[in-house]
Amino acid sequence: MPPARKRARRYDPVKIRTAVFTQFGHVREAVRTLTAEQLALPTRLGDWTVRELAAHVTMAVETVSRNLERAEPAKPELALVDWPFATAARAGDIADGTRDLAAATPDLDALYAHTEERLRQKLADAPGERVLAARTGAITLADYLVTRTVELVVHTDDLNAAVPGLDIPCDRQALAACTRLLADALAAKAPGGSTEVRIPPYAVVQCVAGPRHTRGTPPSVVETDPLTWIRLATGRLAWAQALQDARVSAGGERADLSAHLPLMA
Hints:
Blueprint: H1 13-32, H2 36-39, H3 50-69, H4 83-86, H5 91-104, H6 108-123, E1 131-132, E2 139-140, H7 141-162, H8 172-189, E3 195-199, E4 203-207, E5 220-224, H9 226-233, H10 239-244, E6 248-251
Parallel strand pairs: 3-5
Antiparallel strand pairs: 1-2, 3-4, 5-6
């Protein structure tokens, strides 16, 4: 009999909304400074340029407003912890939409301003329990906003990797929510209690089938920092490379997580 799922983690909806706006604002301020040459730089996301990546960030936020305009489904279908696994099926559509948006909107700051204004208007009287008809599956607004912290933090890191010296900051609440959701997704994908994954200061989860521990140090321990974990979980960094670079410490017979990563392709 498979192990029962743990109780879902709870997020403070006010803090999550603030985190989304704050991180979006950080990205907007940075994009505003980019030169034409920087916007034309390649990124680590296939053939996307920095301009296309910057446009995609607005798409990730605009989906909240667009979903609030759609008819409300009868009930949620998608649990928050399952969202990371539901994104891969839409990769092709997202790539096409991103290229089209980047080509059609030369004024990125105006695009960011419009996106933020719409989001503030749509969220003004939208309760967290409102169900959204998201293309990954019907999900509550409160949960969907947590997924936006993943989009924003991951693509903040992508932009920083693409443009030397850009250094867009990560809002603490956004980084925490992103880290925790992806850690919980690992625990859902590889249920068990033989391995403890520590991502200080934000998350500790137990996962991987095998001998359980009841006290003291678990049989296997993995520890890393939040951004390294996020890169591993999203396929930006390979497990073997992270070990080689000493960005992950892993001890114990079940400390190799390579079979379970990435969580989001």
